[in-house]
Amino acid sequence: MTQNATDLVLEVNNIEVVYNKVVQALRGLSLAVPRGESVALLGSNGAGKSTTLKAISNLLPLEDGLLASGSIRFCGQDTARLAPQQLVRRGVSHVMEGRHVFEDLTVEENLVASTYALSGREGVGKPDFDLVYQCFPRLFERRKGLAGYLSGGEQQMLAIGRALIARPR
Questions:
Q1: Is 133 helix (H, G, I), strand (E, B) or coil?
Q2: In sequence order, which residues have a C-beta less than 8 Å from that of residue 156 and are 6 or more positions away?
């Protein structure tokens, strides 16, 4: 990585990920996300996109995965010893595929639940529900209905909306 470390929000350096102590899923992956920019991770099925994101979010142990080598830094801090919930409180949001919402809560209650990720963070202000409803007007229409009755696409919108409420960096 040639960019100044202070200009990077995320820096992944030469990581190797292993599942079940034997299956190598990634080897030698590096990427950098400069402050204020977006980076796309593209590849075919099985190329390691989800594994990369799980490594960044420290979710690998949930699937018997291990970051075997390399390093991941978020805002200049090594993330190896941080639990997933600590990363969320620092501003890392991971929206997994598969419509992970609280089905028995309303759309609005799902968004309120995501505000707990803001506790302990300085300078974040009030949750911005209007931002979510601007991005996803359909959620505003369905805000009083149970999330379990949303279509698959609407549930994914809600999952993204919950991540936006948590104020990702």
A1: helix
A2: 95, 97, 99
